[in-house]
Design a protein that fits this description.
Length: 180
């Protein structure tokens, strides 16, 4: 399975959106260099309020560009970086990957998938009603999160738009993604 990076984004300040960059550098065990969510321990405000010593399983946020097309069909215009992701992808079923999947990106970066992004109400502050487009329910009433996946950096490197993403699934049995 392969995909491609279509955009990279980072922000050194807490903000819902992240500006696009020519490249980002991911640092092993830390996250995106200069990004407010990088660190060994949690950096998302809600998680820090619960327990600031817990490990940061949300170092790098990836979102599939195909989501923008789906929400666009419902009248929402979303561009890369606007939902706070660090890496926008195309051609991969990110939400279908199991926990522990390794994403080899570009020449040397390796990310390990940890779980699903749990979108917050801030999304409605960005565009009213968008939260219902990225969080829904399946036919059994289970919550379905569609706003991308979270990962940790196993091997550092530079990530650029146009970089290939090579997916390496973990040995089975596979665990489906859950919110982190």
């Amino acid at each position: 399975m392969t995909g491609v990076v279509t955009a990279v984004s980072s922000n050194g300040a807490y903000s819902f959106t992240k500006p696009n960059r020519d490249s980002i550098r991911v640092l092993a065990g830390f996250g995106v260099e200069g990004d407010v969510h990088a660190g060994v321990t949690v950096k998302h405000r809600s998680r820090m309020a619960q327990d600031p010593t817990q490990p940061n399983l949300r170092q790098v946020h990836l979102i599939h560009e195909e989501l923008f097309t789906k929400v666009g069909a419902h009248g929402y215009e979303v561009a890369p970086g606007e939902l706070g992701e660090n890496i926008t992808t195309r051609g991969l079923d990110l939400l279908g990957l199991p926990v522990g999947t390794l994403l080899h990106i570009g020449d040397s970066a390796v990310l390990e998938v940890t779980g699903l992004r749990n979108p917050s109400r801030q999304i409605d502050g960005f565009q009213d009603g968008l939260l219902k487009q990225v969080v829904g329910r399946d036919e059994h009433g289970n919550v379905v999160r569609k706003a991308g996946i979270m990962s940790v950096v196993k091997e550092g490197g530079v990530v650029r738009p146009g970089d290939t993403i090579d997916v390496r699934l973990p040995d089975g049995p596979h665990r489906p993604l859950d919110r982190v």
